[in-house]
Amino acid sequence: MPELPEVETVVRGLNEQVRGLTINRVLHVAAHLRRREPHLRDLAGDRFLDFHRRGKYIIARLHSGRNLLIHLRMTGRVLFETRTARRGKHDHLELEFVGTSEHLVFHDTRKFGVVEFLDEDRHDGYSSLGIEATEITGRQLHELLHGRARPIKALLLDQTTVAGVGNIYADEALYRCRIHPLRPAGRLSRPQADALAAAIRRLMRLAIKKMGTTFDSYSGVNGNPGEFARYLQVYNREGGRCRRCRGIIKKMRAAGRGTHYCPKCQKR
DNA sequence: ATTCTCACCTGTTAGC
DNA sequence: TGCTAACAGGTGAGAA
Fold first, then answer.
1. Residue A51: which of A61, A43, A42 has the closest Cα?
2. Whole-number Å distance between alpha carbons of A41 and A11
């Protein structure tokens, strides 16, 4: 679900609502979140200093000097809410704070999401993230694509190249600069790389402004959906008309993901 | 080294 | 209506 704009929206919500709060008790930690040490129970007594984002990761800075790393993967949500009813079956972490009745809940239907302490030397995705999608330049992108045979869409989804672009925004960015998702990455010209980088930056900026894209499960910290879905040009519009050329939007499989494009105006 | 496929898990929906 | 298969915003391990 959540790509850079959705994660950024969550981070902003956390900074507005949860920054500065001291954790009173850890009310619940689901078994699948207990893989790594230290145990998340250990959060009790600590305080959230602030939150920031890198790619699709949320990093919480704690008063103890430790950092908490959160990745929402497909269906993860971070919610700050008043808890009255009993805990839902997909609520995997619940924190109680000093001085407020609202709780922080990590909710995740598919359990792909990750919440753990960030340790010094990591060898996973977080430590190998590429250039932020909000900042990438045409020159940088062109350099990264150079000599690559794989489809441009696969490269955009690779977080070690550009950090933050996911399946929705990859389709949207390629559509906006008329590049076919299967075009070999190394065959983009410099002007095309410039256009693609600009489209990515612009999309990120607009989608953040609209608080992300909601189809199903995504919401911000308050449970509010994102508004960007109505600005999508190709994603989830299979069978609809291209707003540029009136062609029919098609869906295929690329880079192992459902991929939407206009065969008439996106050329290989 | 690069690229691809599958597995992870649960819920929803398309198709028969 | 009911059953089954395919699919869903992501990524990591292992294979080719």
1. A61
2. 22
Compute the average pLDDT of residues A224-241. 92
Nucleotides of strand B under 7 angstroms from a protein beta carbon: 2-11
Q: Which residues of A are catalytic?
A: 2-3, 56, 257
Tokens describing residue A144: 């990264």
Residue A240 has pLDDT above 90, yes or no: yes
pLDDT digits (tens, 9 = 90+) for A181-230: 999 999 999 999 999 999 999 999 999 999 988 887 788 888 888 899 99
3-state DSSP helix/strand/coil % of chain A, to nearest 5: 30, 25, 45
Interface residues for strand C (CB within 7 Å) are: A 1-3, 6, 55-56, 71, 73-74, 110, 112, 124-126, 157, 159, 166-168, 212-218, 226, 256-258
CB-based contact A196:A126 (threshold 8 Å): no
